[in-house]
Amino acid sequence: MSFSTSRLWGRSGVRWVTAAALTGLVGFSACGGSGKGSTEDDSGGAGNAGAAGVAGTSGSAGTSGSAGSDGGIVPPPFNPEAARRGFSLFYKERVNRAVLAYNRFGMFGDSVFATTLGRAAVARNGNDYEVIAGPADNNLIGTSIFGVYHAYRIFRTRELALTLIRMFEGLVFFEEVTGHPGLTSREVLPGWTRVMDGIGNTVTRTRAGSPVTHPSPPSAALEAEILSTFYSGVRFTYRENPEDYFFNYLPGADVVDYSITHAHSELPAYLRVSDCCSSFMRTPDGRKWGGAFWGNHNSRDNFPDLALGIIAALGASEDADADADVRDAATRALVAGRSMGDLIQQSGGNIMTVDEHNPYDTLVVSGEVRPHGVPENENLGALAACPDVFLAAAVSTDGYSLTSPGLPMPGTVEQVLSGLLGGAAGCPIPQPRLCMGLDDAYCGFGWSNFEEVRVFGTPIFEFIDGLEADTPGTAETLFGSFQNDYDDIVEAMVSLVHYARAKNDDALRTEAQTALGHMSRVMRLFADGLYSTTKPDRQASQRYEAAVFDSLGGLPVDDADLQDFTPEEERIARIEDLLQLADTQPASLLTDQQILDRVEQGLVDLGAHASGRSTIIRDRYRAAFGMEPPVRRAGMGYEARRAGGPWVAVETPRHTGIGGLALLQAIAICNTSPTVLDCTWAALGCERPDLDSSGAVDATDQTAFDAAFEAGKSCDENNAWCDGADLDRSGALDSDDSAFMAAAQGCFY
Q1: Which of 422, 434, 678, 685 is the least crowded, having the fewest Cβ atoms under 10 Å away?
Q2: Residue 377 main-chain phi, psi, to 5 deg
Q3: What is the pLDDT of residue 422?
């Protein structure tokens, strides 16, 4: 990235700054992110607000409850407004709908094990559905597990138990699929086509039309229960073999990416997911999961999300109230997660992978050399923030506590900052760089005094304000990449709070909460500095995430930043709406000229990348295809070819794309900050206030409630709880019952 002028003028106190020096700041980005929609730079999108807690119940907006005279914990005072929010978002029947939709459209792998992918394509014809899984190289795997675990703690339904089992078993598959113990991935698929037939009550798996021998056969009883619970009356065909859909579906569905990237097959070793960032490595035949596919070059920015799932497994494995099969699956997932943490520890704080340039048995640091063959200036898998370093230790077998010794941080972010931060003194970087405490940030500064970091001698946020005053948008150009990844680092500290809770380590929990408060403050300072002038919506989004992180950590929040949880409402509504998906129709066909124009524009849109990546990609395309794209019209359909291959008929797409599904991300707040979000009424569900049993709560139910309501009247089973008006079964009619009925208006089941 470069600037159109050779230097920028700052306000008083901000020096003349050369474009070359400022460009160095862009190197903050670690490329990637937990579940963010990836770009060609893999820099991600708005991020996720989905860290979640594991154990314990926080008190009023930042307290964990106070000690009572009997030595127990006094719960925080009940907040009807928090209960209204909780019911509106997460009433029991709505959660069941969302979980049903998510099992059908958001989870991939097998009947009993499944992981999350952030992108899919769905076709429907009556009760028959076809779902194409991915590719999507940043996925909210652990965050989804956390949300479902907290929902399960609240509702204890079998639907949530089965979903959690699938997710925990998916974490086991995630760790097993590569054949390298402890290796992590961006995305994992078994390499088969799976049919969940809830009409004929069968499950089949095929590869190239032939039945597959399952490497790890699931429990027949669990498979039957999952089939009947989530697929009754429908048939879902999941295409989970990239070798199939890359060359049959993608040519017509995504003519640009297919032509420039996917048509250049490197099978049997790998398929190109994206030229910048990741490939689908094929697990070699002869290994347990031979023929499966997994995304390499996993990012340190994805790691905090993955750790959330491991910490959820820690909590569920010791949850005495959980179903036995949930605890069993959680225990297996915890073993897999600790194996991942152990490999990172054994590798000096580096996330390892198999790359495109070495034998399959050779492990290298993720992102050291990318798919296009050019080395990165900053290894993608090298942990580059102390919260990530501590979190990796926490999920390992040895765990983490405040008495743990200093841990190595191999990432190079501080090298990028050297000479830019800290004024004339430069950026002090001791070698080896060790993370010594939870307040350890960058260049000798802590999260508690991060605003004292200096850029060219000026405090960082003053520097940002000066840039924005003179040239709005410039600060985002410089620091937006860092801010985009920073939320993942804050999420890592949230995870440490809940790791400490799960381990009953009060000292670690207290210090992690303190550090989290400092880090979320910095997150808000960046949001205000970078976006208040040019992107107020982005500013609000970042402040919302910071407020969610604080709520998940049991810290005080500014209620205005929560926006009445509108972002969470939009997320769960999107998932629910999938159950109403209409039949899909074939897409309109492109002409050969349209295909050529789109592909040529795609080559132009690669821009000019400093590493030479863009030139490499263009040269590869021209050498393989010249001026004739590898997709063309053939009558009422398409033909396509791979580099060096013949023309073959391919599919005419009839699918609609879905993605970015975030399941129950905020529900953990009901367990961590119940005066912010309370699921007490949500757990009772919509059926309770549906006094006329119509399947929905409306004005008729309100009328019946008003007729039965008599303030202070005693209620019990003998008077049918005051004809149902004692909604919370407290034994008396009061304002909470009225508020509950008002909150329930519009719910249905």
Answers
A1: 434
A2: -80, -10
A3: 55
